[in-house]
Structures are given as C-alpha cells and as structure tokens.
TrEMBL record:
Descriptive protein name: Zgc:175280
Membrane topology: Multi-pass membrane protein
UniProt domain Cationic amino acid transporter C-terminal: residue ranges: 501-551
BP terms from Gene Ontology: L-arginine import across plasma membrane
Keyword vocabulary terms for this entry: Amino-acid transport, Cell membrane, Glycoprotein, Membrane, Transmembrane, Transmembrane helix, Transport
Transmembrane segments: 7-30, 42-63, 75-99, 141-158, 165-185, 212-232, 253-282, 302-328, 349-369, 375-394, 401-426, 438-457, 469-489, 501-522, 529-548
Length: 572
C-alpha cells in the first residue's frame, strides 16, 4: 500500500532525469575540461563517463523494477543488506542532496547576478559581510529565496512540480539544440588538428601537444573522471517508485533514456565548442559566450544565459525532489523522527519537503559551500557503490536464506538471549559452510573481496603513473586477484527470481562500476574525508539513540508470535 499519488508517466521520469542531470555543467564543464585536461578529445571523455554512469544506472534500474517503492538506494540497501547499512546509505544521500541543493542555488544566484553586473554581491557584501572562517562572504538571501520558492512548489504536489520541470527542461533543450547546430555551422574541423607549433607560437603555455588527443590518452581518461560527475543525479528517478503509474517499466526506461539524452547533449555541446574555437583559447568560466564572440555571433550569449538559468532551475528541482522522498522513507521506517513521514491531502510528503528545504536555505545563507561540495560527491558515489554491491548479493544469494538468517539473528539479539544468540550464529555458520549453502557464502565473500581489491587497485593505479617497477608489479597482482574473485562469483549459481528489468553482464558490469566508484572516492582530499566522518558520526548517534528503538522492523519482529526455530527449516 502507498499513500502517494501514482500520477507520473514515463515521459515525466525522463524529463525529471534529464532536468536533474543536465545542469549548468553542460554550459561550463566542457570548456574547463577541454582547455586544461583533455583538449578536443573531451568528446571521448564524455563517452567513457557516460558508459561508466550507465553501469551504475542499470543497477538502479533493476532495483527499480524489483522494488517499486520510494527511497532509492536507501530502500535497495534495506531489502538487501539490512537496516544499519540502509541508514548509512540514506544518511549519505541526505547530505549529498542537501549540499547539492545549496550549491546549485548558489550557482543560480551567481549566474543571475552576472547578468545584472554583480549588483547582489556588491550590495550584500557591503552591508552584511561575514568574515569568519568557514562561513560565506555574505548571506545569499536571493539563493535562499529560490530554495524556498521551489520548496513551496514541491510541497503543493508532484504533478505540479513535474509540469514546471518539463517546461524548464524543454526550454533548456531548445537552447542546447541551438548551440549544437550553431557550433557545427560556424565550426572548423581544423580546430581538432592544431599543431604543437601553433600552440607554442601563441601566449598559451602548458596546453598539451595539439591535435585531437592534446594531452594524450591519459588526459582523456582524466577528463572522463571529471566528466563522470556530470551524469550524477539520475538516481532521483529511483525515488519515484510510489508516484509513477507503471514503475517496473517506467523507472528502467526513464534512467536509461535520460542518461542517453544527457550524453548526446554533452557530446554535442563539447564537440561544437571545440570546433568553434581552439581548445587552448577557451574560457574556463564562460566558454560558450566567449566562443560565440569568437565566431562573430555575440548576441547568442543571451540565449546561453537563458539556457543556463533554465538548466540550473531544473537541476535544483531534480535534487530537491529526492531528498524529501528519502527523508520520508526513513521516517516511515522509524529510523528518523516519525513526524517527517506526514502526508498532506494532496499526497505529498509536505513536512519532509519543508524541513529539507529549510536546512538547505540555512546552509546557503551561512556556509562556504566550496569546502562541502566534495563531501556531497562522497555521498552520491557511496550510494552508487552500495547499489552495485547489492546487485551482486541479490543475484548470488537465495533470498529466503538471507531473510531467515537475518530473522534468527535479530530475534535472538533483541530478546537478549545471549546463549541462544551465539548458538544461532554458530548453527548459521555451520549450515552456510555446508552444502547447499557453501557456494552462496563463497559468493558473498568474493563480493567483499572485490570491494577491498578495488580500493587497493585504485590507489595503485595512481602510483602507476610514475612507472616504477614495484607499482607495475602491484597493479598486475591486484588485477589478477580481482579477476580470480570475479571468476569465482561467475561460477556460482544465480538467484532465479526474475524481474521486468535485469542488469546484463552480471557480475562483470557491477564489479566494474564498484571499481570506478572506488577510484573516484580515493581521489578526494583528506579534509573532505574528515568532514564526511564527522557527518557519519552524527548520523550513527541518531541511529543508535533513536532509530534502533523506534524501528518499524524491530517492532514487527517483537510482535511476531512464532519465532524461527530452525534456519534449516526456513531454507528448505
């Protein structure tokens, strides 16, 4: 049963996914990466990044088909690996979405302020300065007002929000189509063949070797790692499980279609940009307006301004939409405060929406968000990684056995029957290491081995750039062990439960997704991890102080009148 209104169509989901994913990055990121990292081969970087993002997207698509409920990665973790990991995942998603909301609102305010010659920054900076470390230079009341305006729209109802999002997404798409067509009309293929001598004869320095792969293939891959972040936020589609008419089909189609459309847009814009203007002359902050001035189409920069504001608006809606759904799902399960699960007459999680919007508005008023954006990336990538892990566990562990195992252990621990608890653990271990459960246990062990190897291999790949013998040997050994772990998983029998959509190429595709996500997390700075650790400590305090005692799952187990007496019986 669900209290949500099932009113969204597949087209609404595609618009939501495109709107949230195709943000302002399409107007800025292409210039920055092409100029300093990849050169014209940025089009290949976007292709690699799109393929990597699709791997994560397919994992979400399968869970969306299997579990058509709201909550996204939080819910998928709950039904696969249990309550504690579900809370950790949900807590990661909350910080990711809230910081994302604040940073996008700040970018919206900045883009609009540029059009009016920085009147907002000058006025607020003069009259309300904040010079304390960690705080913003001034309270951005305009950005906070934008957040609260969109919060009000979301609180009214999902259908109204979908209509606003569809209009803004269409306007953004029209501007992007114009940019792509204009770029191919005014572009020159010779800008993809610039010689090294031509670069040396200009004032530009440290801009590669010219040609299509200006910074070598290594630069193209480095650009792909940056471009990967351009495809995040598609997971907002997975939070609509209780609001879409046919979730088993609409969610997979929405995720795959939105990623494909976003790739075409990023590919087309980056190709047009590097054709219109030599990559080493691009502006890293406003590449498209400068490029249009370069080719003599200066008025086109106003179309770019309108498109960027529409893109920021849809991106802001797309990141605000899922945070209220995750918050609602956690409150409904008893892991967060129950009142956050309140539903309005229009079947909208109004209290969760208003609370999340208020927190984001306070953050944009007070804090320097630059230091927090990377922490938002950790939350998103962690969720992607855990969903890929859950796909492996789901496919290679029989569901009834996992449920029986969790039920026995939790019941024993909740009733404080210490001797019985350890007895259950021992009997469970004995059963799982015997036929027919040994292969399933082997599969789970291999999954966690893959995670550990991915972390080690990600760090080793960084050292490989120095071409030292020890680093080459280490990478070779780790790759070999990783392949053996994947082969071990491949040889186990899969769960035979079918769904409307299933990830192809299991276990290879989820394993590659895990490695890519781990590699990206390893690249983040130490200060980011410290901030992230503080956030997780706060979350665990809330969970063990409130969530454990108010968990709906705990209440159900305590109310059960017939405790499990034998794990063997359940598995049979």
């Amino acid at each position: 049963d669900s209290n949500f209104c099932r009113c969204l169509t597949t087209l609404d989901l595609v618009a939501l996914g495109v709107g949230s994913t195709l943000g302002a990055g399409v107007y800025v990121l292409s210039g920055e990466v092409a100029r300093d990292v990849a050169g014209p081969s940025i089009v290949v970087s976007f292709l690699v990044a799109a393929v990597a993002s699709t791997m994560a997207g397919l994992c979400y698509a399968e869970f969306g088909a299997r579990v058509p409920r709201t909550g996204s990665a939080y819910l998928y973790s709950y039904v696969t690996v249990g309550e504690v990991w579900a809370f950790v995942t949900g807590w990661n998603l909350l910080i990711s979405y809230i910081i994302g909301t604040s940073s996008i609102a700040k970018a919206w305010s900045g883009a609009f302020d540029d059009l009016i010659h920085n009147a907002i920054a000058n006025t607020l900076g003069k009259h309300t300065p904040m010079d304390s470390p960690g705080l913003a230079p001034y309270p951005d009341f305009f950005a906070a007002a934008i957040i609260m305006l969109l919060t009000g729209i979301l609180a009214i109802g999902v259908k109204e929000s979908a209509i606003v999002n569809a209009i803004l997404t269409t306007m953004n798409a029209v501007v992007l189509i114009f940019i792509i067509i204009a770029g191919f009309i005014k572009g020159d293929i010779e800008n993809w063949r610039i010689s090294k001598e031509a670069i040396l004869n200009t004032e530009a320095t440290n801009f590669g070797q010219g040609g299509f792969f200006s910074y070598g293939f290594e630069g193209t891959l480095a650009g792909a790692a940056t471009c990967f972040y351009a495809f995040v936020r598609f997971d907002c589609i997975a939070t609509t499980g209780e609001e879409v008419k046919n979730p088993q089909k609409a969610i997979p189609i929405g995720i795959v279609a939105s990623l494909l459309i976003c790739f075409l847009a990023y590919f087309g814009v980056s190709a047009s940009l590097t054709l219109m203007m030599p990559y080493h002359l691009l502006d890293s902050h406003s590449p498209l307006p400068v490029a249009f001035e370069y080719v003599g189409w200066e008025p086109a920069k106003f179309a770019v301004a309108v498109g960027s504001l529409c893109a920021l608006s849809t991106s802001l809606l797309g990141v605000m939409f899922p945070v209220s759904r995750v918050l609602f799902a956690m409150a409904r399960d008893g892991l967060l405060f129950k009142k956050l699960g309140y539903m309005s007459r229009r079947q909208s999680p109004v209290l969760a929406t208003l609370c999340s919007g208020a927190v984001a508005a306070v953050m944009v008023l007070l804090f320097d968000l630059k230091a927090l954006v990377d922490m938002s990336s950790i939350g998103t990538i962690f969720a992607y990684t855990l969903v890929a892990v859950c796909i492996l566990i789901l496919r290679y562990v029989q569901r009834h056995m996992v449920l029986a195992l969790i039920t026995v252990i939790i019941r024993k621990s909740l009733t404080c029957e210490l001797l019985g608890f350890f007895s259950s653990v021992y009997s469970t271990f004995t059963f799982m290491t015997s036929d027919p459960c040994f292969s399933k246990q082997l599969s789970v062990s291999s999954v966690f081995l893959v995670i550990a190897l991915s972390a080690l291999l990600s760090e080793a790949v960084e050292n490989l750039r120095r071409r030292e013998v020890w680093s080459i040997v280490l990478v070779a050994v780790l790759v070999l062990v990783l392949l053996l772990a994947v082969i071990t998983i491949c040889r186990q029998p899969q769960n035979n439960a079918k769904a409307a959509f299933m990830v192809p190429g299991v276990p290879v595709l989820p394993v590659v997704s895990i490695f890519i996500n781990t590699y990206l997390m390893v690249q983040l700075e130490g200060e980011t991890w410290i901030s992230y650790a503080v956030w997780m400590v706060v979350g665990l305090i809330i969970y063990f102080g409130y969530g454990v005692r108010h968990s709906v799952q705990k209440r159900r187990l305590l109310e059960a009148q017939t405790p499990a007496t034998s794990l063997q019986t359940h598995c049979d």
